[in-house]
Write a structure and sequence with these properties.
- It is built from 9 helices and 6 strands, in the order αααααβαβαβαβαββ.
- The chain is of the alpha/beta class and about 350 residues long.
- The protein has 2 domains: about 10-135, no CATH class; about 170-355, 3-Layer(aba) Sandwich (Rossmann fold), CATH 3.40.50.
- The protein has a 6-stranded mixed beta sheet, with helices on both faces.
């Protein structure tokens, strides 16, 4: 089936949040900063940026979590749990994405246009993530420049120029078993069994005899360590780390389950990011690609399950019904015409039964 182009509801909500929540707060903060640190103050540009990044960003994020907690009618315990699990990752993502934007905004954009500039930057950021490399060939052609006399013949010729020619093979690898009791994300390292699982997965991938083009992996500790081990069996294959593939809550499962109930805010924060990961990585080959490609993505169960549902045009709310073992291999094939096939889902047949886990 062809890749779905539907826009998830919570991606729009993420953009709308900047217009209707961040906007008013930002307006008054910019007024305060303009009076407290005027341009003539020494090192004003640096001081303004530090004030925004180290004071406003954390304070607003905390206020947003509190606001969501109140809307959901939850108590102090739920708010504390939400802050513990989501505050630091969300703040890190904010610092990475918005520091360059805010440096320009608070120092070089006129005061009356700063909120508008930030909202437009947010709009283009999400639109960019949501549209990378997945458009139909016809949408890439400027039809206004079409020669009326040559008509359909010229259109067909130009379409051929934009059509994909190669097939992409996507290998989605779930990280190996890890210490789930680690207090910090960096403490959730692989267990001894997890390291064995990664070795077995690396050996299996190497045994396929394929010329892998790259390894893209989540920036979380357990995914990085899994990648380190697998990479030893695939020498010369370049590695790329990304925050888009970090674990999270992609979309509320339907029907709901009793054993896993993250705070609703996670669906808003994680959902747009994981959807952006899907749109960024799961698409037909670029028109310039001449040969079939074989790419490895090492990440997490929730991310893989959601990607599989989206790629096959299954209702994404059913992602939690899929079960994936640690170190398992899921194989998606994307044809030049955009059709997707699932060749393997959570394969661990290459592991001895006593080595298989799902933690």
């Amino acid at each position: 089936m062809k890749l779905d182009q539907r826009e998830p509801a919570w991606l729009s909500l993420t953009v709308g949040r900047r217009f209707f929540v961040t906007g008013p707060l930002s307006h008054y903060f910019y007024l305060f900063m303009e009076h407290w640190i005027p341009p003539e103050v020494p090192l004003a540009t640096v001081k303004r940026l530090l004030l925004d990044r180290l004071l406003f960003a954390p304070a607003f994020l905390m206020l947003f979590f509190l606001f969501m907690n109140l809307l959901e009618g939850k108590g102090a315990d739920a708010f504390a749990a939400r802050m513990k699990s989501g505050f630091w990752p969300a703040l890190q993502m904010n610092w990475r994405v918005w520091t360059p934007v805010q440096f320009i905004n608070i120092n070089y954009v006129p005061l009356q246009f700063r909120v508008l500039f930030a909202n437009l930057a947010a709009l283009f950021w999400y639109a960019y993530l949501a549209s990378l490399k997945k458009r139909e060939p016809l949408s890439l052609i400027n039809l206004r420049k079409r020669n009326v006399e040559s008509g359909e013949e010229e259109l067909a010729s130009r379409l051929d120029h934009y059509k994909a020619k190669a097939t992409r093979h996507i290998f989605l690898i779930r990280h190996s078993q890890y210490h789930v009791d680690g207090s910090m994300e960096k403490d959730r390292t692989l267990t001894p069994l997890g390291r064995e699982q990664a070795e077995l997965t690396g050996l299996r991938l190497a045994s396929l005899g394929l010329r892998f083009n790259k390894i893209v992996h989540s920036s979380m500790t357990r995914a990085v360590e899994t990648t380190d081990i697998i990479s030893k069996h695939l020498p010369g294959v370049c590695r790329v780390s990304t925050d888009l593939l970090r674990e999270g809550a992609p979309i509320e499962p339907d029907p709901p389950v009793s054993h896993w109930k993250p705070d609703a805010v996670q669906y808003y924060e994680d959902g747009a990011r994981i959807e952006a990961a899907f749109r960024n990585y799961i698409h037909r080959a670029d028109a310039k690609q001449e040969e079939d490609s074989y790419e490895i993505f090492i990440c997490h169960a929730n991310v893989i399950r959601y990607i599989v549902c989206r790629a096959l045009q299954f209702p994404p709310e059913g992602w939690l019904r899929l079960s994936l073992n640690n170190g398992s291999i899921t194989h998606l094939v994307i044809r030049p015409n955009g059709r997707v096939a699932l060749r393997a889902l959570g394969d661990t047949g290459f592991m001895p039964p006593e080595k298989i886990t799902r933690s």
